Amino acid sequence: xxxxxxxxxxxxxxxxxMLNLSPDNPLKDMEKLRGRYGNVYSVYIGHRAAVVVCGTxxxxxxLVNKGVDxxxxxxxxxxxxxxxxxxxxxxxxxxxxxxxxxxxxMTMRNFGMxxxxxxxxxxxxxxxxxxYLGKNSGKTLSPHVMFHSIASNVVCQVVYGRRYExxxxxxxxxxxxxxxxxxxxxxPWAFLYDCFHxxxxxxxxxxxxxxxxxxxxxxxxxxxxxxxxxxVPGDPQDFIDCYLDELEKRSNNxxxxxxxxxxxxxxxxxxxxxxxxxxxxxxxxxxxxxxPHVQERCQEEIDRVLEDKxxxxxxxxxxxxxxxxxxxxxxxxxxVVPLSVFHATTKDTELMGYSIPKGTLIIPNLSSALSxxxxxxxxxxxxxxxxxxxxxxxVKPPDAFLPFSAGPRFCLGEGLARMELxxxxxxxxxxxxxxxxxDAGEPDYELEFGITVAPKPYNMKVELxxx
Length: 467
Ligand code: HEM
Description:
CATH architecture: Orthogonal Bundle
Number of strands: 11
Organism: Neogobius melanostomus (round goby)
Strand order of the largest sheet: 1-2-7-4
Binding site for heme: 411
CATH class: Mainly Alpha
Strand content: 5-15%
Structural class: alpha+beta
Distance between the termini: 64 Å
Number of helices: 16
Largest sheet: 4 strands, mixed
Subcellular location: Membrane
Helix content: 40-55%
Number of domains: 1
Order of helices and strands: HEEHHHHEHHHHHHHHHEEEEHHEEEE
Shape: globular
Bound molecules: protoporphyrin IX containing FE
Radius of gyration: 23 Å
């Protein structure tokens, strides 16, 4: 370890500390290492040193106070080769990332895409789910595909301007190809690829991910070409149109905007905005079903605030402190992106008294803040009181509430995700009662670890509410 580098367990040659971290669920091992070495420690992933940052104080110092120093992304890993170093999520801190992030934030905030606002698009999508649940009232179903489909369609509507039935051939192939890439990126072959440079030239199973990228390209490019043909300049209908308008505006300037970036942008928005939202919904309904008093209290509040109003608006959240608290608590306990997206230091810097050289891999352990003792009234149990005061009012979440991370890299889709979670939950709870099936046994709240974290598969029984 370099001088004054954060401490950590002894690393073995070639594999580093991989034996200290279980690939199935490294979070528990990381907690143990935190207990031993403190809130900032280092591990070796193969030959690469990584600094794990835990706890609200250290995370805030890294992500916010020294945000720019820690705003890079590693650039020499398998996932960078697969994504051709393009796309805002994995792009390094620099002009291309800045240009694209600024453009995306503006576009998402104003969303001047056609006549339909972002909220109308989300509402429109929810109606398909309401219809589906209505048809299945009285039955027991597996919600996994349903929630994935709603989250997927919201992104597809926003980015590509279209939606797909859940069994549509295009979207089924698209999703399974992306899954394939994700699994390879998260798997042992990617680890080998990252550890041993010579391996990169061998025809090993990681080549699947490069083939899958080519497949996804061949699927997305026709959509982009169609937009180029049919769009009305200055009257964008979706994110792709907005990008093409921008590309035209910048055509004489020195810019990083180009068709290749657009492709990766579309792909990454899909990747970042689908499983995150659908896994959060899965956690939400797991708790709502198995803690029926929480579901009933949400429904009472929803009925009281909306009375006979037809349409629910995102604005209504201000009058629903309990529902707001439940959604925040679901995000806290659901811990959907526990290790964030890995960062890298952009220059030699310091963190909590340790020296960290430029280019060091940084693992922000968001999970450690979401259940940190001293930060929450009930750090280890599901309890919406974590976000309510004595009067039952929703309180501003503490700094430890980091499901979307913080600082220059905070989640670009936070606004959209919040809107989706609120509108989906309120719409569905208003119309239906969700019941833990009698034959389902004891609920298992243990989360399954992956790039995003999810509850174990479960079924739900749905009944129409008669109020
Ligand atoms: C509950 C839902 C979501 C959660 C918990 C979540 C969480 C996160 C987290 C933890 C990061 C990493 C931030 C960092 O590196 O410090 C991130 C990045 C990102 N998210 Fe989300 N996200 C969600 C939904 C969405 C949605 C709906 C979209 C867009 C459609 C989106 C787009 C992005 C993008 C583009 C980035 C990369 C930002 C950058 O590197 O500058 N996310 N998200």
